[in-house]
Design brief:
Layout lengths: L2 E4 L2 E5 L3 E7 L5 E8 L52 E4 L9 E9 L20 E9 L4 E10 L4 E10 L5 E13 L4 E8 L2 E9 L5 E4 L9 E8 L10 E7 L4 E7 L5 E7 L6 E3 L4 E3 L2 E7 L2 H16 L13 E3 L1 H4 L5 H13 L4 E4 L21 H4 L3 H10 L3 E6 L3 E3 L3 H5 L18 E3 L5 H18 L3 E4 L21 H19 L4 E4 L9 H4 L4 E3 L6 H11 L8 E2 L2 E2 L12 H8 L5 E3 L7 H23 L1 E6 L5 E7 L5 E8 L10 E2 L9 E4 L4 E4 H7 L1 E2 L9 E8 L2
Helix pairs in contact: 7-8, 10-11, 11-12
The structure holds (2R,3S,4R,5S)-2-(hydroxymethyl)piperidine-3,4,5-triol.
């Protein structure tokens, strides 16, 4: 059993870690340990109690001035009851008071991972069912119950946390803040968040965790390009291979809040969950609210191990469907080749050439429907433009399939253009505040996904299109942030529920589509990586990583993405040069080497390739087939980050039989010594041959000495080296 729960001691054990808390003499859940694996033994002795001025003592502590909720490390904290730190939960009772004080009532241990209603969650498998601890708490002065839900995935060193709140009273309680995670940790830390903007997502940014709060999040209706809902907390001196570090990641795609702050005594409080800004939820009598799941991991061996934990658990227990472990179709997407301007002969010529070059699927991007020759119109009219397609969508897709290709389609279901039949028929379906003209973004408005009638319409329309096309794949895009939050279907006092209900609505539609089309591969997208999160990965096992397809920028985008998300989830394509976003020209082989760090595919017209580029494409496709299983299923290594002259990364088979190293020369300087790259992921005792370098050494020697690339590479050149274990 991974869960120990006896005599008020609760301990969750994974392969290398333990998470522990106790229910103390007052029924308060006191956090006592999260870190390296320990025996099932209370660590409460390490929790000091002392009288601290201006830190109040709960009434039931009597004359004990050393007992204060303000100084205890807690599993859950509510505002208003004497813990003045940033709370996990905040609510307003029917009488207008805002305090809550949750104390232990009961617990149960369940032998399997638990799902969350309408929300993504890690799931158990036959081999690894997971375990769950549910601790029920009750507010001392009301009928509000909280169930803290802890999941354990021992193999991957992952703990999950969530909370449900139930109102067993007779009048509504208003939830003002429901975060999923509250964790009080001793010691000094830095926090690394992954920040950016459209076309430059997930750039690591590190700040010390001090008394001035480190906080970030999204209020954009999606997890956002600007801040990813995942962050690291590292002990001083943590590197890729050494040091104690924690990772926190929210399986949620809507507005979120993340923060870490040292309290008055220097202990760090970590919080993660739904963004409280613009959130208010009315919890009626008998109602239950479920918070999204937070994923936690600890590594005592640096960031590489931490990333492997998240990669493994997401691949095994989050991504679903037939492509969970299967090779994804090697696709070509027409977006950068044609944008909105295409016709049937052009698309079929592109597809024919693609098929001849060994590509496996054509994805028809934006512009195939309604009146959609630019981004000014057409969204919502998911009816094929038969003029552009030279006939029905079904016939076009059949022609593509006749070339030996699978067929995929782009849609942006949550959006509507004002210039569309859908908007003209249902202007009230667009998100807008009555009396205020809603802001446009990319010229478009947002559909009210909180409404069941809107979702029913979309389900019927999308299903009809997918069925007609017999689509193998859907690219689900979302090209703007959501503002003007308002739903005509919600009463005024429930308007604070809009953003969360929007996300739940999108999840519900995705779930219905997957149930109706179980073989459909959905690739998530939000102007590239604006909704790249663990929530979406539950529905879409791959996500277009960024609209920036420049290989050099992509190195840092994919680097930042790799801290939490596995390479099999990272949509990455080779596009034409000069690059559309940066105007940079990079060798084809480098573009292919970088795209091979993700799902791999193309975003260009193969008819425009030079003979050399055609050769390079054929070679890249062959390489992809030879070793992409390492990328998809193996362990990822960040050998040299994008900050230096040479960036390098590797993927190693789980059995360590093969390791693929990719290095790209980012800058070249006068008389610089050739780079010596570190190498990891080999079995020290085995011998490995690298045919490209013409050398054979033990794994120990390779890893101790690293790889010296004797010829200094020109700027932007790449090398890919395969290390194969000798029999
Ligand atoms: C944004 C996506 O990220 C692009 O790849 C493309 O699909 C466009 N939208 C189409 O409008």
């Amino acid at each position: 059993m991974a869960i120990y729960a006896q005599n008020g001691l609760f301990q969750l054990n994974t392969r290398n870690t333990s998470y522990q808390f106790t229910a103390d003499e007052h029924g308060v859940l006191v956090h006592t340990w999260y870190g390296a694996r320990i025996p099932n033994e209370s660590m409460a002795a390490g929790i000091w109690r002392q009288d601290v001025g201006f830190s109040p003592n709960p009434a039931d502590a009597g004359a004990d001035r050393a007992y204060s909720l303000d100084t205890l490390p807690q599993e859950v904290s509510c505002g208003g009851e004497g813990d003045f730190r940033e709370p996990m939960l905040e609510l307003t009772h029917p009488d207008g008071s805002t305090a809550a004080d949750l104390r232990y009532q009961s617990h149960e241990v369940l032998p399997a991972a638990q799902s969350l209603p309408g929300l993504p969650a890690l799931y158990g498998t036959g081999e690894e069912p997971g375990e769950t601890l549910v601790v029920t708490l009750k507010d001392t002065a009301s009928e509000l119950y909280a169930r803290l839900i802890y999941g354990v995935f021992p193999q991957q060193d992952i703990i999950t946390r969530s909370v449900t709140l139930e109102n067993r009273g007779t009048a509504p309680v208003t939830l003002e803040r429901v975060l999923s995670l509250c964790l009080d940790l001793d010691g000094a830390f830095t926090l690394t968040a992954f920040c950016g903007r459209h076309a430059m997502e997930r750039q690591p940014e590190t700040v010390p965790v001090g008394r001035v709060k480190a906080e970030f999040g999204s209020v954009r209706g999606a997890s956002s390009h600007q801040y990813n809902p995942a962050f690291l907390l590292c002990r001083p001196g943590t590197t890729e291979t050494a040091g104690g570090c924690y990772g926190f990641c929210l399986a949620y795609s809507g507005n979120f809040l993340a923060c870490a702050q040292a309290d008055q005594m220097g202990r760090a409080r970590v919080l993660l969950g739904i963004q409280p800004r613009q959130f208010r939820w009315e919890l009626g009598p008998g109602a239950v609210f479920a918070a999204p799941q937070a994923l936690l991991s600890y590594s005592g061996q640096g960031l590489e191990r931490l990333s492997h934990n998240f990669h493994d658990v997401m691949r095994e227990h989050l991504c679903r469907g037939p492509y969970k472990h299967a090779p994804r179709p090697l696709l070509i997407n027409n977006w950068e080749a044609t944008h909105f301007t295409f016709d049937r002969p052009q698309l079929l010529a592109l597809a024919r050439q693609a098929a001849a070059l060994g590509i496996e699927m054509l994805v028809l991007d934006d512009g195939w429907f309604g009146k959609r020759d630019s981004d000014a119109s057409g969204l919502g009219d998911w009816f094929p433009n038969e003029q552009k397609l030279g006939g029905t969508l079904g016939a076009f897709a059949a022609d593509v399939r006749a070339l030996g290709l699978k067929f995929g389609l782009w849609m942006e279901p949550e959006m509507v253009s004002e210039d569309s039949a859908l908007y003209r028929a249902h202007p009230d379906w667009a998100v807008a505040i009555p009396g205020r003209a809603p802001a446009r973004s990319r010229g478009q408005l947002v559909l009210d996904m909180t409404r069941a009638d809107v979702r029913d319409y979309l389900f019927a329309r999308l299903s009809a299109v997918l069925a007609e096309a017999k689509a193998d794949y859907l690219k689900w895009d979302m090209n703007r942030s959501v503002c003007d939050a308002f739903s005509r279907a919600l009463p005024a006092h429930r308007m604070g529920e809009f953003y969360h209900r929007f996300t739940l609505g999108t999840y519900e539609l995705l779930e219905r589509l997957l149930a109706a089309f179980p073989h459909l591969l959905i690739e998530g997208c939000s102007g590239g990586g604006g909704r790249f999160d663990a929530g979406m990965l539950y529905y879409t096992p791959q996500i277009w990583c960024s609209d920036n397809t420049d290989a050099i920028d992509r190195i840092s985008i994919q680097y930042g993405t790799s801290f939490f998300y596995p390479a099999c989830a990272v949509g990455a394509h080779v596009s034409a040069c000069p690059n559309e976003q940066t105007q940079r020209t990079v060798p084809f082989s480098t573009r292919a080497a970088v795209a091979m760090g993700g799902t791999f595919g193309y975003e260009l017209d193969p008819n425009t390739l030079t003979p050399q580029e055609r050769e390079a494409m054929l070679a890249a496709n062959a390489d992809y087939r030879r070793w992409h299983d390492l990328v998809r299923e193996g362990d990822a290594f960040r050998l040299a980050g994008p900050g230096g002259d040479t960036a390098a990364w590797a993927f190693a088979a789980k059995d360590k039989s093969r390791v693929l190293v990719t290095a790209v020369q980012l800058a070249r300087r006068g008389y610089a010594a050739p780079p010596c790259l570190p190498l990891r992921g080999l079995d020290p005792a085995a011998r490995y041959r690298c045919a490209a370098l013409g050398q054979t050494h033990t794994g120990a020697a390779w890893m101790a000495g690293g790889i010296t690339i004797k010829t200094l590479l020109p700027q932007y050149a790449a090398v890919q080296l395969l290390f194969e274990r000798e029999a």
